[in-house]
């Protein structure tokens, strides 16, 4: 999708992607480190991260269409390269957040042939991984935004 209502789609989608990654990352960190938030928010973090996962390739695709309108430059190339890599952070973030939600469901954990100790270890590992990937996704979206601003406005 190149345009929306005659305007380039990328600048419009990018706002959804930025807000989505930042919100999903912060919510993921909250549910990873605060068990009460995990219980209270239920499936919401997984849905938020899934919506973000859907928006990221739309934004990237619109950006690739917009890229063709500009002369090649190192800053634009850096931005597009970083933008292409964002899915590598948001995809695993969605998987980990969904796994955190599944690990709270007795219907899931009672069917697994694992001891309580094993389930606790898995839970801790998934929570640490979720927080780490969330921080990495937030840092990545900030780097992408900075490189995009430099590509458009210089600096």
UniProtKB/TrEMBL annotation:
InterPro entries: DUF2231_TM (IPR019251). Residues 6-153 form the DUF2231 domain. Keywords: Membrane, Transmembrane, Transmembrane helix. The chain crosses the membrane at residues 12-34, 41-66, 86-103, 124-145. The keyword Protein transport does not apply. It comes from the Bacteria. This is DUF2231 domain-containing protein. It comes from Gordonia hydrophobica. The lineage of its organism: Bacteria, Bacillati, Actinomycetota, Actinomycetes, Mycobacteriales.
